[in-house]
Amino acid sequence: MELFKVTLGLIVIASLSATLSSANHGFNLGSGGHGGSGGWSFSLFPEFYLFSCPQANDIVMSVLERAIANEPRIAASLLRVHVHDCFVQGCDASILLDDSATVVSEKNSVPNKNSLRGFEVIDEIKAKLEEACLQTVSCADILALVARDSIVLSGGPYWEVPLGRRDSKTASLNASNTNIPPPNATLQNLVTSFNRQGLDEVDLVALSGGHTIGLARCVSFKQRLYNQNGDNQPDQTLDKGYYYYLKSVCPRSGGDNNTSPLDFASPAKFDNAYFKHILWGKGLLNSDEVLFTGSAGTTMQLVKIYAENEGLFFIQFAKSMVKMGNISPLTGFNGEVRKNCRRIN
Fold this sequence. Notes:
CATH topology of the largest domain: Peroxidase, domain 2
Subcellular location: Secreted
Pfam families: peroxidase (PF00141)
Shape: globular
Cofactor: Ca(2+); heme b
Largest sheet: 2 strands, antiparallel
CATH architecture of the largest domain: Orthogonal Bundle
Strand order of the largest sheet: 1-2
Number of strands: 4
Structural class: mainly alpha
CATH superfamily of the largest domain: Peroxidase, domain 2
Number of domains: 2
Radius of gyration: 20 Å
Organism: Quercus lobata
């Protein structure tokens, strides 16, 4: 076990270095990302706005500091928007588009409707960036920066965000319904869903650790309390005390919008308590607990390691966020930079 921990730690650190160094300043011939028309494919890199909008990072952080001070939960909500965006048709801000004559909004999908939140914070950031640097900073890059800064302001790790994404002119309600794993997903469902995005089991466990902040609605975990396997019985992997607490929050009938912290010990602090709770049978969602109980040695061992070593979790979380943020970006001359994140230009 000790050898496994050391080996995994070395792999994680080496892989992180390779990921960050690959965010270079050049460009290559290629497809230009999803939905592209071919031609130049530009790399993402952290200094993309160094000359065109050098104050971009400061503007994002200043708005977020106020928003999170007013409502700490908004940090988790904004992280979730970025994840739900990237899993649909790449990190292209398609999730921010409202319904229009040409767009069927992803906001109406099953995983997002009456659940996804924080759009007003994105609107405020975009408005301030437009005042400072007209039509320069993409909504897709705003989402990536907001996700990172939300983690930092919640006590989590900092990482350099590769930038240079452009915004999609389309959305996909169908892909939003299909590609985003549901809260009652099995471990195999989760692995398959992440693999489809080019993410592996290490990324799955690390990114799931984002649930160390935020809340979930009763409807997301009700099945575990009352009918886990279609037999009107609770999930037997639930800690009994935790089970009775959750029943008080989430009744068998009604109360679907009642909420419970994903990490009941420190719901506003980004730490590794989420993994400790999973070890104790106190993971809130089925998709949380199956990382340990789903009979896959890799995810089980990673849960144990991150529960014991917060620093290793932070390193891997940052690496996996960079990797996820690189899913099929629109770059170069593909897509556009929206003036308003809610509609195409």
